[in-house]
Amino acid sequence: MNSARRCSALFREICVSSVGGQPARTPLPPAGSAATGTRCCHIGPGGGGVRRTGDPLKPGAAASTITAPVCPMGSSSSSRLFGTMAQALSSSSLAQPDPDLDQDQDLVEVEPEQLLRECEEALRRRPARPHRDLVQPKLLAPCSHQHNPSIRVLQWNILAQALGEGKDSFIRCPLEALSWHERKYQILEEILTYRPDIVCLQEVDHYYDTFQPIMARLGYHGNFLPKPWSPCLDVEHNNGPDGCALFYRRSRFHLHSTAHLRLSAMMLPTNQVAIAQTLRCLATGRQLCVAVTHLKARSGWERLRSAQGADLLQSLQGITAPGSGAGPGPVPLVVCGDFNAEPSEDVYRRFSSSPLGLSSAYKLLSGDGQTEPAYTSWKIRPSGESCSTLDYIWYSECALRVEALLDIPTEQQIGPDRLPSYHYPSDHLALLCDISFREGPHRLL
Length: 445
Known about the structure:
Radius of gyration: 21 Å
Mean pLDDT: 81
Order of helices and strands: HEHEEHHEHEEEEEHEHEEEEEHE
Structural class: alpha+beta
Largest sheet: 8 strands, mixed
Number of strands: 16
Helix content: 10-25%
Oligomer: single chain
């Protein structure tokens, strides 16, 4: 069966279409056209996804912009290709398989490009999402990737469906814009466009009926850890608790170990969790520990967030300690998460001064390499407008280097009604960076 038919079969197999069926397909406009109302994504030299580092870069101001042609993605549609996303998985009975079992081994993988086009067709009614460039930090010199290909990491609080519709009160966002029937396409479209090797998500409440089966067919192995008590459970017709999810590409990594962590504060367990997985990179043979977390939200909880961060750092220090990996030194570390904390908070200072030698990747977008973006979340609730930097990708600075970062949309691109909206599915922006292992003596530090 060719790839296109196999992808269509995937949708029929795991998706339930709503009443009315699917609309007739219309051909996509040729790449590079700029028709009004079209959706846009980044296309690399090979025609799929954002351009990967290693290709020639253009000089810029604070960073070099990796420019790419625009790919139109349709105009309008009320398609329900995904439906509930689970013909075989009933949303009323959420089976939770053993996370230690590799249940993806025998799955037939599908072509991401075809699934992306399915999403594009379903989203023709929606306006284009903000255009974002992949940029190289100016302070970093290009390096060869012949034997050390970069690793693409995506961090994103995707906004739990139950919270978006039932609790968060985004007063400038129409309820229709939060409908799962189309919002799920937008989330998957974002992931498919950038083709990350590692995906770290928070506020995932459709893991077993949506993300796990789809991502497994795209070649990822997934792991999910729900909150012990999730506010999603207070919402009528919820889809279970929300939590953190971590996916890695099976063709790129082999799983060495997994740790599920319930974060503590002052010796008491809290409602926040983290996943830490140690992976072996199949391209280099080297190990990498990746962690994903979501710290306590709201103002007034700064001390709790600081204590949770301290507990997480202590756990990660043990997981990555010298001798725990294949080499004599500590295992390099990447920590992704919604910290619900501005850079002025104590938990940020804990991470930036940790013995683990962590640095925040997105500081490198600034001219001096020391300043975080002005915002990673921008929303309007009844309590007022909130424009905050809450999301981070931390990395072991001595063992890893950042090759490129996805830039932050401008205020004009986000729009006056802020996030979420018809053109963006979450109140948090996705962060993405390409990292690589440092060579030479750095790897032993």
